[in-house]
Specification:
By secondary structure, the protein is α+β, with helices and mostly antiparallel strands. It has a domain at about 5-85 and about 115-190 and about 295-360: FAD/NAD(P)-binding domain (3-Layer(bba) Sandwich). It is about 35% helix and about 25% strand. The chain has 17 helices and 20 strands. Strands 4, 5, 11, 12, 13, 14, 15, 16, 19 and 20 form a ten-stranded mixed β-sheet that branches. β17 (about 300) and β18 form a beta hairpin. α2 runs parallel beside α11. The longest helix is centred in the last third of the chain and has 21 residues, at about 320-340. The relative contact order is 0.16. The structure holds flavin-adenine dinucleotide (FAD). Flavin-adenine dinucleotide (FAD) binds near residues 49, 182, 308, 310 and 323.
Length: about 450
């Protein structure tokens, strides 16, 4: 859309023009805005909700450490009540447990301890941290549209808390609006992943089973007996546990009853989960989402960048979402500061990191697809004990280097006859299938998004 602002004089505009506007105050938006403000630029962050607000995505992975460090968030995380996470463990459909993958064994450094976070608390800490670094973060401000001047993004139209409509201008617009994907929808850039079509149903328990010592905070990934789904089991503070099932969307929701019925049926298919919650008290209703993985065709254009879920969403199997939000926020912030310093906010300058990000996501996606196609961590490590460290590198989120690529050949050597490596995220699907895709979140009564 051409903007009403076109009539305003250049002088008028430059008076109130910001350097950067960031849409969304989740982990991606807080990261990008903080790192840009650290360099002395004027950043305004616009968040639709009032924090704290509910969000899913509770298990962090160790490589978040390095971005949290740049954000000066580590002391806050260390002083928080978030449960410390040292490992991830897999349980097969027959109940066989892999040995835990302890991150420390692989990298004896404090980065190998990460956290299980309650996102309403974590996101609020991140947003307040952004404010402490000079970001002007406003809540209850909804971005209605990104304003374009030709191909270039120049501002946003917003609805203020009092309902008033306003236009704001900046040299760069960062879309960190999560699955809303404002720019992706506006420019029709969303590419649905042809392989990863999942749904999830989850709830929260108090008093469920917890391991002790350094295993207390382990994420467990437990396959259901029919191998169609898997449960996450994430211990949180205040004696709570987040327990959810992920499975192909059609299987999980089509022709089945309420979310409660579906959940209970799947718990029955997973005795290791049933045992763990048997004497616990359920403290919320049931949450559900349909979560088709997707990515944007581009990370940037003239004057705009997309990060976090507003760029892409990957199946939550390995808890990589917050890491990718932080990493893309960091990559974008560095490119934006470089662009502002050099007076060049072209697509090429703002988005040169796109291929690196895509490559990293490709690696995690490959591991996700392999799991859904029958890959067993236990079996792999038995066959290739020397590669345990490289698999752990992938699990901690060390994705942006080719050193981990040595695992793919050996993995393929264990394929049964006729099996092939998974097709790529952009290998396409028929238009009539694309037309049926949209992600949605159903919350129980009383929970705000
Ligand atoms: C079932 C499930 C389980 C998951 N488990 C994990 C996990 O264990 N670990 C993990 O790391 N990740 C997990 N994820 C992924 C994780 O939730 C996301 O990847 C992560 O939250 C992305 O962060 P973000 O900042 O990009 O987006 P978000 O966290 O979604 O933040 C976007 C923000 O933008 C705001 N916004 C939206 N539209 C507008 C607008 N028009 N104007 C202003 N503001 C707007 C929203 O209110 C929101 O606060 C999971 C996801 C799902 C679906």
């Amino acid at each position: 859309m051409m903007i009403a602002d076109a009539q305003r004089s250049e002088m008028d505009r430059s008076i109130d023009e910001l350097d950067v506007i960031v849409i969304g105050g989740g982990p991606a938006g807080s990261t990008a805005s903080t790192l840009i403000a650290q360099q002395g630029y004027r950043v305004r962050l616009l968040e639709r909700e009032r924090f704290p607000r509910f969000h899913i995505g509770e298990s962090l992975i160790p490589e978040t450490y390095w971005v949290l460090k740049r954000l000066n968030m580590l002391p806050k995380m260390q002083a928080s009540r978030f449960v410390k996470k040292y490992s991830v463990q897999f349980v097969t459909s027959s109940g066989k447990q892999s040995a835990p993958f302890y991150f420390w064994d692989n990298k004896p450094h404090e980065c190998s301890q990460t956290w299980q976070v309650v996102r309403s608390e974590f996101d609020t800490m991140m947003l307040n941290n952004a404010r402490e670094h000079g970001v002007d973060a406003r809540e209850a401000v909804r971005v209605l549209d990104v304003l374009m001047n030709g191909e270039r993004a120049v501002g946003v139209r917003v609805q203020e808390p009092d309902g008033g409509i306003r236009e704001l201008f900046a040299k760069v617009i960062v879309d960190a609006s999560g699955q809303t994907g404002i720019m992706m929808n506006k420019l029709k850039m969303r590419v649905w992943d042809p392989l990863l079509n999942k749904g999830a149903v989850w709830t929260y328990w108090e008093g469920a089973y917890r391991d002790t010592g350094k295993d207390e905070g382990a994420t467990m990934v437990l396959q259901t007996s029919n191998r169609l789904g898997w449960f996450w089991y994430i211990p949180l503070h205040d004696n709570r546990v987040s327990v959810g099932v992920v499975a192909p969307f059609d299987y999980l929701f089509k022709g089945r009853g309420s979310h409660e019925q579906i959940y209970n049926e799947e718990v029955e298919r997973c005795p290791a989960v049933a045992e763990r919650v048997a004497s616990a008290r359920r403290i919320t209703g049931y949450f559900a989402t349909r979560d088709y993985s997707y990515r944007s065709e581009r990370v940037a254009g003239d004057g705009w960048v997309v990060i976090g879920d507003a760029f892409g969403f990957l199946d939550p199997l390995y808890s990589s979402g917050v890491l990718l939000a932080l990493k893309s926020g960091e990559m974008a912030a560095d490119a934006i500061c470089d662009g502002l310093r050099n007076g060049d906010t072209s697509a090429a300058r703002l988005g040169h990191w796109g291929p690196l990000l895509n490559q990293g996501i490709d690696r995690m996606r490959r591991l996700v697809c392999e799991y859904y196609e029958g890959f067993s961590f236990g079996n792999f490590v038995r066959n290739f004990p020397d590669l345990r460290g490289k698999v752990t590198d992938l699990l901690i989120g060390d994705l942006f280097t080719d050193k981990v690529d040595v695992v793919w050949g050996p993995m393929e050597s264990l394929y049964g006859q006729g099996k092939q490596a998974p097709s790529s995220w952009d290998s396409g699907m028929p238009d009539e299938v694309v037309a049926t895709k949209h992600n949605e979140l159903t919350l129980p009564d009383g929970v705000r998004p």
